[in-house]
Amino acid sequence: MDVYLLVLLAIAVVGLAVTAGLSFVPAVQVWALERAGRRIGIGVPADLDPAFRRRMGRRIRASALGALAGLALGLLLASTVPGWGLPYSHRPILLAYYGVIAFGAVGSAVGVIVVSLASAPRPGDDAARVARLTVTSVGDYIAPILRRLALAASVCAVVTVGLAIALGGTSRVHLIVPGIVLVALAIAGQIAFAVAARRIVAQGRPTRDTDEMVWDDALRWLALRDILSGPLQALCFGAFYGVLGTLNGPGALALITAFASLVLVAVFNIATRNNTDWFLLRLWPGARRRTDDEEAARLAAADPATAPWPDPSASHR
After folding, report:
1. Average pLDDT of 194-213?
2. From residue 244, how far is each of 83, 176, 238, 240 by CA, in Å?
3. What is the SS3 assignment for 279?
4. Residue 130 φ/ψ, nearest 5 degrees
5. What are φ and ψ of residue 88, in 5° steps?
6. Paired residues of 130 in beta bridges
7. Full-prediction pTM beyond 0.85?
8. Phi, psi (deg, nearest 5) at residue 207
9. By the 8 A CB rule, do 161 and 180 touch?
């Protein structure tokens, strides 16, 4: 890869490293909670247990560190696997950079899986706890249409690589290998989601009130979204690497399936952005952000000793 691509990767590495460092800062953790709350349509209560902002910080940190590990692995492969960075006339193109970034996206998802499964529930104390009477499932957090889109995109990418292997011939195997690696990585990510998602949803976490239970659901949704989304980005680049292996040959069908995979991933990304409140509609129908007056009245009625955050006036906005 040339200097231009290395500079782009260096910028990405610095940004991820800074993000990982800032995730330790309480103000950044609160900002991340408030940003997520605005997207979902819920407020951050002033007396929300600080454990929730720490969970947010751990998720951000794990995602960034996982992405760094993925970039390192992707860069290693791009530098050693024949054809990864030399698709046309032995000259590096931007596709090599995207291939490395795809590894970073998968690494980010792996980081979120690890921190979500390793994060033990808080031990109980003498405070009153609330619990949900119904059993939740992955479908309560991730809309079924999103999983179907992910599956369809995966099938199209696998078909593309299969056609590349069948039609590309041995003369272009150096172009097909990166496609096989990326698609296999994405499929492994889908399998990891299917296994980890059930365990994440089944985790029991004691909460003091319904506000905390809503935010517990919100953090689960964020984790599941990240785990499902990351590997899909590798599908697109894997499929088009496969198409490169069929150029100047009978590869029209491979081009169609690769384009279908790209479209399906794009639709998935759009649907994800438009379904940020899916879990809220499923598990908390009718929930909404409290107004300033309602939040002030709630805080006034609560025991001041239970409000650990020093600036309650801003944290629920």
Report:
1. 85
2. 10, 7, 10, 6
3. helix
4. -120, 155
5. -125, 125
6. 207
7. no
8. -130, 150
9. yes
Domain layout of the chain by residue ranges = 3-120+137-304
CA angle 90-95-98, nearest 5°?
140
Is residue 24 within 8 Å of residue 57, measured between CB atoms?
yes
Q: How many CB atoms lie within 10 A of CB 214?
A: 21
Question: CA 170, CA 157: separation in Å to the nearest integer?
Answer: 20
* Coil, helix or strand at residue 159: helix
265 neighbors 151 (Cβ within 8 angstroms): no
CB 141 within 8 A of CB 221: yes
* Amino acid in the structure at residue 309: W
**From CA 310, how far away is CA 132, in angstroms rounded?**
30
**Among 243, 253, 85, 262, which residue's Cα sits nearest to residue 164?**
243
Query: How do residues 64-122 score in pLDDT, each as one tens digit?
Result: 999 999 999 888 877 776 555 544 444 445 556 777 888 899 999 999 999 998 875 55
CA 230 from chain centre, in angstroms, equals 5
For 242-251, the pLDDT digits (tens) are 776 665 554 6
How far apart are the C-alpha atoms of 211 and 26, rounded to whole Å? Answer: 20
In DSSP notation, 187-205 reads HHHHHHHHHHHHHHHH---
d(CA 230, CA 108): 7
Q: Are 37 and 43 in contact (CB under 8 A)?
A: yes
Scanning the structure block, which residue is given the tokens 């801003």?
314
Burial level of 54, CB count in 10 A (0-12/13-18/19+)? middle
